[in-house]
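U., I forgot to send this yesterday:
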Amino acid sequence: MIDLYPRESWNFVFGQASLSKGMGVFSFARYDDDFYSKTYAGKLKKSLHPKQGDYSLFDGYYTPPITSTLLLRSCKTLTHEIGHIFGLKHCQWLNCVMQGSNHLEESDRRPLDLCPICLRKLQTVVGFHIGERYK
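Result:
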């Protein structure tokens, strides 16, 4: 697994998505319990700028053990980034999966679901019936 740095000036991101491009990316690297150790196998010492379509530098790369904690953290990030693809911004109102996070503990505190405000925003964009959806 590899950590994500969208800009040289950023420390990292758990994930990033683009509404206009309809795609997103996220990394499980910081969700591995060993990530913060000095010997973590997934850390890179230099920036990677491979040629387009050349993914050979990732061959044989480190994959951590899949734990329930890693899966829960990954589901939260995936749900959050999909929310961005549907046009949802970071939530500032209630406890919600669309809240931003700057560190692992903050990310762990987020629930896996949307708050009522963000659920309504998603309903408006997608056009589903909330009552039917939750029967």
